[in-house]
């Protein structure tokens, strides 16, 4: 049998999936048959999570029941907070999240129950708790105590409330909801594939999600929007953008937030974040970050003929929402938890352990030489 080698498994089909379709040529992103544009305009995170887990949009009764289940499981055990507080003060937020999820597994008496029903229960529980975990990590880093969830708020509204200690504006809540929807699922990206590989061994859900978080922590996967924010702060003003673009181009540097490993045209998620960044720039009275982003997009696109991706306007938008740059990848994880869990559920329903071959390029067989005879 002829083996096919592709570095990074590029263009290798590793699984059949009915969860999402990413078309890089036309710039399409589809969740369970629904275009991301429609979900961004009309859906909520709770409804989108239900769609990813169950395959269909919920009825009003199903959505209410699902939302109530999430609310009932938002609280995180004190033991998890104690472990997070005991970590080194300079621990990476994603390392803290990885530890937090692993600790949740240790506290679950049914951790090793890998039945379909148990995996669904774990998915809902992790979806509910990861927003609380996200907020607790931010506050612990700041030397503050975590805030308990407010079950009168939506999932997105509650996340922002626990992050910032005050109830968000309508636009800020919408922005958080949109970020959670747009980042929820994206095919066999590195962290999702990692989750499926781990799940294929029939281990527990927590191990799969802990591995996915570890993969997302890597700078080649998560973190691009953090780099965009650092760039905006470095450039400092709209007047400095043109000179910065020319300097990066002359030094053959990289423009973070532009281009995509899959999309050959515009990232379909980017425009939705751009509009909310504009609205929050007005609401907060700080138009500089949005204006700089607009100028940067215009000049960089003309310079390198690449469109901005979902990370670009996510940077200014989250900054307007009161989320510091070092927490951006944790927000990503709080959204992608739905895609990860959906793929784990799909993997274990028709499971086969994932075991690709390696193309051996080392020595041919050779004779062993005693250590005394080696030069």
UniProtKB/TrEMBL annotation:
Provide one Gene Ontology cellular component.
cytosol
**Segments crossing the lipid bilayer:** none
What Gene Ontology molecular-function terms does this entry list? Answer: citrate synthase activity
User: What's the superkingdom here?
Assistant: Bacteria
Q: Which reaction is this enzyme known to catalyze? A: oxaloacetate + acetyl-CoA + H2O = citrate + CoA + H(+)
Question: Is the keyword Acyltransferase in the record?
Answer: yes
Instruction: Quote the pathway field.
Output: Carbohydrate metabolism; tricarboxylic acid cycle; isocitrate from oxaloacetate: step 1/2
Keywords from the UniProt entry:
Acyltransferase, Transferase, Tricarboxylic acid cycle
Q: Kindly list the biological process annotations in GO that this record carries.
A: carbohydrate metabolic process; tricarboxylic acid cycle
Residue numbers annotated as active site: 260, 311
**Family annotation (InterPro entries):** 2-MeCitrate/Citrate_synth_II, Citrate_synth-like_lrg_a-sub, Citrate_synth-like_sm_a-sub, Citrate_synthase, Citrate_synthase_AS, Citrate_synthase_bac-typ, Citrate_synthase_sf
Similarity comment text for this entry: Belongs to the citrate synthase family.
Q: What is this protein called?
A: Citrate synthase
Source species, please? Rubinisphaera italica
């Amino acid at each position: 049998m002829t083996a096919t080698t592709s570095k990074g498994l590029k263009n290798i089909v590793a699984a059949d999936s009915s969860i999402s379709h990413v078309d890089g040529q036309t710039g399409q992103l589809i969740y369970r048959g629904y275009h991301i544009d429609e979900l961004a305009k009309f859906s909520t995170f709770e409804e989108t999570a239900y769609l990813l887990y169950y395959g269909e949009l919920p009825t009003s009764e199903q959505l209410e029941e699902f939302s109530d289940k999430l609310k009932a499981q938002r609280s995180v055990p004190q033991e998890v907070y104690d472990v997070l507080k005991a970590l080194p003060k300079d621990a990476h937020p994603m390392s803290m999240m990885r530890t937090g999820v692993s600790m949740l597994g240790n506290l679950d008496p049914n951790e090793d129950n890998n039945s379909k029903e148990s995996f669904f229960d774990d998915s809902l529980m992790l979806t509910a708790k990861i927003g609380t975990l996200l907020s607790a990590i931010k506050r612990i880093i700041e030397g503050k105590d975590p805030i308990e969830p407010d079950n009168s708020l939506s999932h997105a509204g509650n996340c922002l409330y626990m992050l910032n200690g005050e109830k968000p504006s309508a636009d800020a809540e919408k922005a958080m909801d949109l970020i959670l929807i747009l980042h929820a699922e994206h095919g066999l990206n590195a962290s999702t594939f990692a989750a499926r590989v781990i799940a294929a061994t029939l281990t527990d859900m927590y191990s799969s999600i802990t591995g996915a978080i570890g993969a997302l922590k890597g700078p080649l996967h998560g973190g691009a929007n953090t780099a965009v924010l650092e760039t905006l702060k470095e450039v400092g003003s709209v007047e400095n953008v043109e000179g910065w673009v020319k300097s990066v181009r002359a030094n053959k540097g990289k423009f973070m937030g532009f281009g995509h490993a899959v999309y050959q045209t515009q990232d379909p998620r980017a425009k939705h974040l751009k509009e909310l960044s504009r609205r929050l720039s007005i609401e907060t009275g700080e138009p500089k970050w949005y204006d700089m982003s607009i100028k940067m997009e215009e000049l960089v696109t003309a310079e390198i003929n690449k469109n901005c991706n979902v990370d670009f306007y996510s940077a200014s938008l989250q900054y307007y929402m009161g989320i510091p740059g070092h927490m951006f990848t944790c927000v990503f994880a709080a959204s992608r938890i739905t895609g990860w869990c959906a793929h784990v559920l799909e993997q274990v329903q028709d499971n086969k352990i994932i075991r690709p071959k390696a193309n051996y390029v080392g020595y041919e067989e050779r004779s062993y030489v005693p250590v005394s005879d080696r030069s």
